[in-house]
Amino acid sequence: MAETGTNRAEKTLSLIDCDIHSQNLGGMDLAPYLPDHLRELRGTSTPGSLWSNPHGVTRRDVAPKEGESAYEALCRQHFDEFGIDYGILNRGPLSLGVAADTEHAVALARAHNDELIDNWLDRDDRFLGSMLIAPQDPERAAAEIRRVGDHPRIVQVLFSSASGLGVPYGRRLFWPIYEAAAAHGLPVAVHPGTEGRGTARPPTGAGYPSRYIEWHTTLPANYIGHVTSLLTEGVFTEYPDLTFVCVEGGLAWVPHLMWRLDKNWKSLRVQTPWLERPPSEYLREHVRFTTQPLPEPDNPEHLRQLLEMMHADETVMFSSDFPHWDNDSPTFGIPPLPEELHRAITVENAQQLYGLPDDPAELG
Predict the structure, then answer these.
(1) 3-state secondary structure of 253
(2) Which fold has domain 16-40+55-355?
(3) Which of 118, 106, 107, 179 is nearest to 146 (CA)?
(4) pLDDT at 206 over 70
């Protein structure tokens, strides 16, 4: 592999970005990786969103220059610009996770993973990848994990944060996914964007929102449901080596959930006999959160207090969400923090979770 930018082999890591969307720069063609009978469909049978950003999701200023590839544009505008040592490519089509056509969804996930490996992961030492699965078919999702999960630069399993089966992700029907991921030492991650689409239920407990601003603001509600389910159904007692990553799901709700769950567990623990300790302790050990979109209170001290409440030195990892409309610049995306906490968020938590060496070339 060839690494663009300076040689980082002789220095410690300085920045790991846990959420990058290279597909928004173009250059992703799944057709050659699909079975003949599905090539004509490509992604057209996956469900579209009912709520659209009136200005578009991708920044208008990031389009590749004339004659420049998507790879070159990504390196120039992001990896080289900010000195990123590792970046996790979380690519779509996530909508396959709420598609009614399961056969097409499984084929799309497989095609995505092969295209990711062929055209991106083998191209640059700094690139890491999330493999995509169709969670509505847990058995075949587990088979896909076993198929490509040993690739040295596949570092996690990714699927839609909206459940296409209409139940939260702690339910036992999803456990084949977690068993396969744990066996391969891979975290599982969810990413928003499919709430209320396809076979998913309404994106909020109150029903369907009217506009994108409402839909986008209430996305954390879906994450609360999944994390609560994972904790109370005993996923992490069954798979003690598994980690669940909440990508782009917000942070401010985490302390509330920890406190409320612990309070209820004290009185209702008869319903969760497999939890031998307060749920918040399992959360600290097994659930991770990415920074974007980071809360922006008027008083910066409130954010520092929030990070302390949720034990961010253990649970939070930096993400830019590049090149989306609300992405966070690595330069300005994190406010001034104590040095140890800043390094934990920007490097150490991700490096530990994904088992990353200081020299990206060592991954092979």
Answers:
(1) helix
(2) TIM Barrel (3.20.20)
(3) 179
(4) yes
